Amino acid sequence: MTGLGERTDLSGDWVLFAPMRMEARALRRALPAGAPLRRTGRGLSRATRAAAGYGGTSALAVAGIAGGLDPALRPGDVVVATEVRRDGRTGDERLPCPSAPMLAATLRRQGLTVHLGPVVSSDRLVDGADRDRLAATGALAVDTESSALLAGPPDRPTACVRVIADVAPEPLFRAATLGRVATALRALTRVGPGLAEWAGATSLEQVVLAAPRSFCAGVERAITVVEQALDRHGPPVYVRKQIVHNTHVIDDLSRRGAVFVDELTEVPDGAVTVFSAHGVSAEVRRTAADRGLPVIDATCPLVTKVHNEARRYAGQGRTVLLIGHAGHEETEGTLGEVPGRVTLVQSPGEAERVEVADPDRVSYLVQTTLAVDEVSGVLDVLRRRFPALTGPSSDDICYATTNRQVALRAIAAEADLVLVLGSSNSSNSLRLVEVARRAGTPAHLVDDVGAVDLRWLAGIRTVGVTAGASAPPHLVDQTVAALVGLGARAVRERTTSTEEVHFTLPKEKRPR
User: What residues form the catalytic site here (predicted)?
Assistant: First the structure.
């Protein structure tokens, strides 16, 4: 372990600073062998001198104990700094730590209670009124070293982790503080492995963004329908099923007063009711009409097109085969358009076994969110078995699904790893992961930046990023910011098409 007086420029490596001997000992217990832990001494002046020897180091982290500023914090809680401030300095001199959400998620997987927020460094221990003053700035914790230890090039990966020892509003100088320090040191021991994972991910060099990505016109239309219903009618507004398949969208609309239900039986009489973008069956529409519910239909126009085709083919006396996934809301809605007249086919194997009454009168439809190559395998079998097979005049797979898959293939060819922003129940997002993997590139579906496992990024140079059609664009922005915080100095966008599609609002929501 290197002491304060030993300064070595470790250019190209990472360094973990621990100000005090007891902090360094706690960290060392669980750090991998050979981890570059450096003890600096306590206080801003010592920290400044210690940091001077590491100007060329590629990544810096600091960990230790700290004082809690938020009364909700408890001894042993961990604060991962989103930024590090210097008490008395201006906001322009704050040091951002954009990879903090990924590090916080890693530490939570260690079973620690983790908070994200600013950490402030003071030139002395603070208590009483000084602690109240710093708390009023929004900072969660205060220490006496981090701002000096992490100062340097703005594009260098930095991390600050502080475990709470003393907590507000109780006085700092009291006998019970010693026991709380012991609690904090036990938690600090468990921080080490997470910081090592963070350091392993700082090999990143560039991010390649797929374009188009994120919201499509149908998703934007559906969200707007719910937002305008809330503005016009006031909460609550009831939505049958999830308006789109994304947890962040659902959580945001729920906070604003939308109530998501599985069935119409959960909707009070007379309540404004929205049908989701995935569509509903004819039976659901009849039930809503029988109850006199004021309905706003946010079904994506492309899904409505499939429903119309199902009715048209069935009306011609044809057997209708729907290529799709069982249990998906869109599929259930299409099957319910003409009950008993549409048969679901999920795979080439099912296509080999499906039976029809008249092989010369067979038509097919497609769930809009499937992967193009996934559908082609099923269609190859159906066309071989039923040479007279007919289908829609244009592909049912929606333009947004197709465009995002084409863009994904383009970045997958350049990337060592692909991250797809989207929720686990989003069919189009899941298909993007499958497309990347079929192209030979490892890929992961993540709800947001906090779901990115740092271990995936170890040794990775280029990361591709995209998002499903139901994922908000800001999730991509947050993820890219965190990847840049891990060292990716180049961010490129690979555009394969430009989307200019716009859907008008349902007649119930058009301006009067």
Answer: 330 (proton donor)
**Per-residue pLDDT, 2:** 40
Query: Tokens at residue 320, please?
Result: 């209708």
6 is catalytic: no
Classify domain 14-200 at the CATH superfamily level.
Nucleoside phosphorylase domain (3.40.50.1580)
Instruction: Give the torsion sign (CA, 394, 397, 402, 404).
Output: positive
Distance CA 447, CA 248 (A): 8
Q: Which residues are annotated as a binding site for isopentenyl diphosphate?
A: 245, 278, 328, 426-428, 470
CATH fold of 217-300: Rossmann fold (3.40.50)
If one counts every other C-beta atom within 10 angstroms of the C-beta of residue 155, the result is 11
Tens of pLDDT, residue by residue over 353-372, are 999 999 999 999 999 888 78
Annotated active-site residue in 145, 197, 329, 330: 330
- Give pLDDT, residue 171: 59
* 3-class SS of residue 104: helix
Fold of 310-385: Cobalt-precorrin-4 Transmethylase; domain 1 (3.40.1010)
Q: Detail the residues annotated as belonging to a binding site.
A: 216, 245, 278, 300, 328, 368, 398, 426-428, 470
Quote the longest CA-to-CA distance of the chain: 88
Task: Name the pLDDT band for 3 (thresholds 50, 70, 90).
Answer: very low
Domain boundaries, the chain: 14-200, 206-214+399-495, 217-300, 310-385
Count of C-beta atoms within a 10 Å radius of residue 434: 17
Binding residues for [4Fe-4S] cluster: 216, 300, 398
Mean pLDDT of the chain: 91
Q: Using one digit for the tens of pLDDT, what is the confidence trace for 97-139?
A: 999 999 999 999 999 999 999 999 998 887 778 888 999 999 9
Strands 462-467 and 206-211: parallel
Q: What is the pLDDT of residues 476-492, one digit of tens each?
A: 999 999 999 999 999 99
Decide if 14-200 and 217-300 have a common fold.
Answer: yes
Task: Write down the pTM of the prediction.
Answer: 0.88
Instruction: Please determine, for residue 53, whether its predicted confidence score (pLDDT) is greater than 90.
Output: no
**DSSP β-ladder status, 417-421 and 342-345:** unpaired
Report the pLDDT value the prediction gives residue 89, as an integer from 0 to 100. 55
Q: Which fold has domain 206-214+399-495?
A: Cobalt-precorrin-4 Transmethylase; domain 1 (3.40.1010)
